[in-house]
From TrEMBL:
InterPro entries: Myoviridae_GpU, Phage_P2_GpU. It comes from the Bacteria. This is Oxidoreductase.
């Protein structure tokens, strides 16, 4: 298992990602001063965004079409999902902002041989242990043993 987004598992047999990008911002408010440069005050953390770049070879990854539909269904709910690496690192709860799909190299029936897509996520809150963390950590560790 590479990563879990809620109960969706990114792995080599299903859908794997080749690149993970993370962009974090911090907010600073400018206070104008007379006859001087502005003074800046730290106003807290800004957005934390993730982008997963994925490539699917449909001849090898047979469950990938079902996985893409599952990700789309998850995004349609608008709910936040826990994002967790296969190493056990928990990033927090994220929402799915966008999915861009490119399909190429088609079979005679029109099905793609290759699909590349990016999944854009935004962190909406941190994960706090004691809520559901112990159960999810245990569940993901079991899934890691399976996959």
């Amino acid at each position: 298992m590479q990563m879990a987004l809620g109960l969706f598992i990114f792995s080599l047999p299903t859908i794997s990602y080749q690149q993970l990008q993370r962009q974090t911002s911090w907010r600073h408010v400018a206070h104008n001063r007379f006859d001087d440069a502005p003074d800046y005050q730290y106003a807290g953390k800004g957005e934390d965004k993730f982008t997963l770049n994925c490539s699917i070879s449909h001849e090898i990854q047979m469950l990938s079409r079902i996985g893409l539909d599952g990700l789309r269904a998850m995004a349609n709910t608008g709910k936040p999902y826990l994002l967790m690496e296969g190493t056990g690192r928990i990033y927090g709860f994220v929402v799915i902002d966008e999915m861009n799909i490119t399909q190429t190299d088609f079979f005679p029936d029109g099905a793609p041989r290759k699909t590349e897509f990016t999944l854009s996520l935004t962190k909406v809150r941190d994960h706090k242990f004691g809520q559901i963390g112990d159960l999810l950590t245990y569940g993901v560790s079991l899934l890691r043993k399976i996959f």
